[in-house]
Amino acid sequence: MMLLKTALEAKKQVQKDKKAGFRIGLVPTMGALHQGHISLVQASKEQCDRTYVSIFVNPAQFNDKKDLDAYPVDLESDLKLLEAHGVDAVFIPTVEDIYPEDHPFPKIDLNGLDKILEGEMRPGHFDGVAKVVYRFFEIMTPDVAFFGQKDFQQTVVIRHMTDLFNLPTEIVICPTLREPSGLAMSSRNIRLSEYDRSRAGFLYKTLLKLKEDINYIALEEAVGKAKNYLRNLPGVKIEYFAPVNGRNMEIVHDLSQDYIVCVAVIQFGGIRMLDNIVLKK
Ligand code: PAF
Q: Going by CA atoms, what residue is nearest to atom 9 of ligand 1?
């Protein structure tokens, strides 16, 4: 497995692979890798000839300095895991490499996606995500890039950004991987106590129940029921729980649109838990 430590090295290696006719897959990550990331690697290995993984804790997407400082980092075990899963190259840039002084970044208009739901809770977050992904695509020009469905709004933001600049990279969204309790895998889960972690599957179970309920009762009623249930659980605070149009994140009130996802974020056991379920597609 190759280690690429500068943008120039990464760019050159990709160019070499492209010249050889290889289809390039990129899995952008912030490290602290888990099986969810590995499922993205596996998808890339199935669909591409070369799989690159980037590891970069992107300061621009942390609106809370404490969250950035507390973000788990374990490069050694990440590299072992990636090597064991047959990754071809890992790009581990520095902040200076990703954000060189005087680098001409275009203005990325997120068309309001950065202001609603997760964007409203974390001002500046999606600007930082769009900027870093733009920069990775600029350096590596992957044919395909893989992202997890868990961060649903992020996938909508990234698709919007690639459409905005007409970038040639195909965006593939892979299903959320879950712990045995049903809890969506996340690098932040290690901050939960063992006890909280074992029962944290209630969020996904609530989403599953919602999906069942909309067969019998109106969407708004079913959402109200789900929120009441969560609100009454000890230690749970809902940040948002909303059915949205899966293409533009606009809140929907009934099932008349063709693509509907319920996105949810709660605070539990001292961490923010994100999850979502496709209600209709
Ligand atoms: O989902 C993540 O880990 C990050 O937001 C990403 C896409 C790697 C950008 O830093």
A: 129
pLDDT tens digits, residue range 45-77? 999 999 999 999 999 999 899 989 999 999 999
Q: Check if 2-174 and 187-275 are the same fold.
A: no
Please report the atom of ligand 1 found closest to the CA of residue 187.
3
| H or E stretch covering 243 | strand 237-245
CA of 220 to the centre of ligand 1 (A): 32
d(CA 151, CA 187) in angstroms, rounded, equals 12
Q: 170 near 144, Cβ under 8 Å?
A: yes
- The pTM for the full model equals 0.97
Q: Which CATH architecture has domain 187-275?
A: 2-Layer Sandwich (3.30)
Q: pLDDT tens digit string along 118-148?
A: 999 999 999 999 999 999 999 999 999 999 9
Q: Is the CB of 127 under 6 A from ligand 1?
A: no
Cα of 29 to ligand 1 centre, how many Å?
5
Amino acid letter, 57: V
How far does residue 135's CA lie from ligand 1's centre (Å)? 12
Q: Are 267 and 199 in contact (CB under 8 A)?
A: no
Question: Looking at domain 2-174, does it have CATH number 3.40.50.620?
Answer: yes
